[in-house]
Amino acid sequence: MAEDQKVDMDWCFSQPKIELHAHLNGSIRNSTLLELAKVLGENNVIDFADVEDVILKDDRSLVETFKLFDLIHILTTDHATVTRITKEVVEDFASENIVYLELRTTPKKNEAIGMTKRSYMEAVIKGLRAVDSVDVSLVPFDEDSITSLVSPSINCLEKDKRRKIYVRLLLSIDRRETTEAAMETVLLALAMKKMGVVGIDLSGNPIVGEWSSFLPPLTFAKEQGLCITLHCGEVYNPKEVHDMLDFQPQRIGHAICLGDEEWKKLKSYSIPVEICLTSNVRTGCVPFINDHHFVDLYKANHPIVLCTDDTGVFSTSLSREYLLAASTFGLDRAEMVKLAADAIEFVFADDGVKNALRQIFTSAKFGALESSDCVAKTCSSRIHLRLQFMDVNCNEVSALRYLLDRSSDLVGGVFCTVSNRSESCAREFNVKQVDFSSFIP
Ligand SMILES: [Zn+2]
Predict the structure, then answer these.
(1) Ligand 1 center to residue 399 CA distance, Å?
(2) What CA–CA distance (Å, rounded) separates 127 from 227?
(3) pTM listed for this prediction
(4) φ, ψ for residue 353 (rounded to 5)?
(5) N or C: at which end does the chain have fewer Cβ atoms within 10 angstroms?
(6) How far is it, in rounded angstroms, from Cα 314 to Cα 149?
(7) How far apart are the first and last CA of the chain?
(8) Which residues, at least 6 apart from 353, have a Cβ–Cβ distance to it below 8 Å?
(9) Cα angle at 218 between 214 and 224, to 5 degrees?
(10) Known catalytic residue: 234?
(11) β-strand partners of 35
(12) Residue 218, C-beta contacts closer than 8 angstroms, at least 6 positions apart
């Protein structure tokens, strides 16, 4: 592999990435867990000394991993904590250049403190609104410019310096839940569609619960336009795997314990698989990373997306997962860029968001232009130069998409510098909202 194609941690970190399989509770910072555990220890709810080591440890055994999950369950039972961890988790993902995040969580009830599934999710939304290190876009693309969760106090210049992360929510049905409880989650997801909820996940202990009991609510969810992803094949259960695949969810997670017949079916349906390398090895589902089914699916050109599952519990990050995949399976930068960008096709967001993501990946690929409408207003010659650069180095359509997305009243300037051929491309991309009259040459 050529030296300039080698993948290292800095490179993985710098690349735009898409995270589609992340559990809120599994992604909590260790420092936050420690702080919450200390408080519960002081209140004699838990023995802090008993859990401190497990929280601080990076390389947890399977037993310790489950001990941590149990602890998280105790620590995250009030609205304020749910809000706090949501804010922190989104900020952490954004800090390593995740540009689109689908965060999943199981809406919980806690009658003792008046928590309902609805109020739990409202606490999650509150956390998203509290994010201040990055702009969070939670709504359909068309409404984004009006209702993006951007502080109104941010002026134009500040806004341009800020990064943006698209966040969508998946409500998880826990396999311990009854059909009725699962249906309640689906109805909640439907009621919260305008707040960024796009789908339903089925998760939890894979040896608990029957697929048949989740089928009615999941079928209803699908009929109502929610997207579905299922934790599938975490344990050997061919009947369930066949039934899950025949349901044809939009994606599945893990897909580890599949026999030949199930592999054939998975590939024939071409259902995208969320691959969580570290999680699969740490939980012992895949004994050795080199034997991971990533290789088989990758070579078969099956749709896959690298994900983290639980960054906190498994002490990983999406950048680390990228590095692990590249170093274990010998992928170079170009292959990793393609793998990352392919994930756009599997997100549960609308086409507007997918187009925006395509622009982000295109611009990263071709030199990460840092165009901004503020800069453009004050320095049209700089924009001119940039366009020429784009014109030479990548196709004009991508260049226009990129610029139009960031341009409001400067697009006249863009038109001054590009050919008639590009002008027709611009029309194609809906620039009707652009106020050409305000452009001053
Ligand atoms: Zn998972």
Answers:
(1) 37
(2) 23
(3) 0.81
(4) -65, -40
(5) C
(6) 30
(7) 48
(8) 100, 137, 140, 141, 166, 347
(9) 155
(10) yes
(11) none
(12) 173, 182, 186, 200, 202, 228, 247, 249
Of residues 234, 240, 274, 321, which has the active-site annotation?
A: 234
Q: Which residues surround ligand 1, an ion (CB under 5 A)?
A: 309
Which residue in this structure is represented by tokens 């599997």? 346
Ligand 1 center–CA 172 separation, angstroms: 10
Q: What is the largest CA-CA distance in the chain?
A: 73
Structure tokens given for 220: 């209803």
SS3 of residue 210 by DSSP: coil
In the chain, DSSP finds a helix count (H) and a strand count (E) of 22, 9
- Angstrom CA distances, 271 to 33, 227, 228, 244, stand at 35, 13, 11, 11
Q: Can you say whether the dihedral through the CA atoms of 314, 315, 317, 319 is positive or negative?
A: negative
**pLDDT confidence of residue 65:** 83
Q: What angle do CA 281, 92, 226 make, to 5 degrees?
A: 75
Mean pLDDT in order along the chain per 10 residues (441 residues): 83 96 96 93 90 86 83 91 97 97 96 94 97 90 55 38 89 96 98 96 93 98 98 95 98 96 97 97 92 96 98 95 97 95 97 93 66 34 34 43 51 36 38 35 31
For 42, the enclosing helix (H) or strand (E) is: helix 30-42
- Cα(251)–Cα(162) distance, integer angstroms: 31
Report the 10 Å Cβ neighbour count for 262.
20
* Residue 159 burial (CB count, 10 A): 16
Q: Give pLDDT, residue 64.
A: 84
The pair of three-digit structure tokens given for residue 330, joined into one six-digit string = 């010998």
116 SS3 class:
coil
Q: List, in sequence order, every beta strand (DSSP E) within 222-336.
A: 227-232, 251-254, 273-275, 304-306
Contact 283, 326 (CB under 8 A): no
Contact 256/288 with Cβ under 8 angstroms? no
- Cα distance between residue 423 and residue 1, in whole Å: 41
Residue reference for tokens 């650069």: 389
